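Provenance

Sequences were taken from public entries as deposited. Structures were produced by running a predictor on each sequence independently, with no templates supplied. The record for Zinc finger MYND domain-containing protein 10 from Carassius auratus is shown for reference.
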Amino acid sequence: MDSVLLHGEAEGYVQSLEKMALRDIGSQRWFRQHEYIEKLNMQAILNASANQEEFIKDLFVSLGKIPTLVHAMILTEVWKHKVFPIICKLQDFNPKSTFLLYMVIHHEATIINLLETIMYHKESSEAAGDSVLDLLDYCHRKLTLLAGRSVSGQILMEDRVTHTQQSDTTSLQDLQRQSDMLEFEISVKALSVLCSITDHIESLSVSVLSRMLCTHNMPCVLVQLVENCPWNRGTLEKYTEGKWRTVLPEDQLKLSKHDGQVWMALLNLLLKPDCQRKYDFNSFNKTQLLKLRGFLTDVVIDQLPNLLDLRHFLSQLAVTDPAAPKKDLILEQVPEIWNDIVTENSSKWKAIAKHQVTHVFNPSESELREQASRLAQTYNLDVMENLIPDKPKCGACGRVGAKRCSRCQGEWYCNRECQVKHWPKHKPACKLMAEAIEKPQEELNISS
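Predicted structure for Zinc finger MYND domain-containing protein 10:
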């Protein structure tokens, strides 16, 4: 299998990661760090999927860089909520600005994807230190948003990379829709990270346990996800492996990966002794938890036999009142990253947006060409195909693609007719990426 990074390269990338200011987002220094994280993410996925030594995880643990990764993710989240809406009002959108803005929005998704791979391991949760509290708060924000949107019917039933777009859709509308789709993907990844944290709860501090059970009442949040199941569209479609897929009749009762993660997190939070001693089984919480009994069918338990213990526990809970947790006075740590970022920039949102509109998201042709060249080197197309389980789709109609665009090698088509039809829309990106690929080759030929 192709590799993205050698061990020495990866070590240099991880070591160079640094905490940045909100104003720095979109700068050349920020984009350079984004490229590093993108490559580290691809290599981590390759290693995990091939059952190879996960040296990316080992480097983040040994070099103590997981808190830096969490900080970068929350920084982007704050930017997206506080600065991005102002930029949308100030910016005259064009393909150049839309491209760069999307790269920033995509940054958060890249980091949560990398954290999903890293945090699967117990030593990663321990190495995260105090930042695990911030990561827990982040997961809570994403899951409550996911549950809320599911209840209100606001889940977008489209894949993030769409193949058929309305011709009258503006760049801003495209960008906002892509942002909403990314938000759904990020929330699903946050569920995976939360599940990993609950797996390792015994090795984490009392503050983490208290915040999960008492401050955020995560068991009740998870009950909402079981009830509303945002990754299912009735019995017709399920969101799996990053796409909405049609469900065959024989698979309609089969649990998805996300269903399993919710149930495993509930199993950890309700049955582990430390959690049972800490959680308040008051009348409200008890009523919410007992809703789970209707979902713990024999078909579900056959797929996750450990859930039989949860069903027995809920049966006992229905007829008993567990003792209330002791109200001990405990000095607990609190998350700091979100609050520090907001406090530092609370009076600067508009100034930051104006600075970035002028100096970041309005690049010259040469600056954009340089950025595209670096991104072209970041995304190794052959390696990317190893990360995607599906066959490539036609950029015009969405059917299985047979051939790539011969110039940029980045878009697929099922036939010549679709390629010609899609050319007016593909032309700007094709030209940019082709020049980014050809320029280093020309320079190499001249130097030779």
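Residues 161-169, 443-448 have pLDDT under 50 and may be disordered.
The chain has two domains: 7-353, 365-447.
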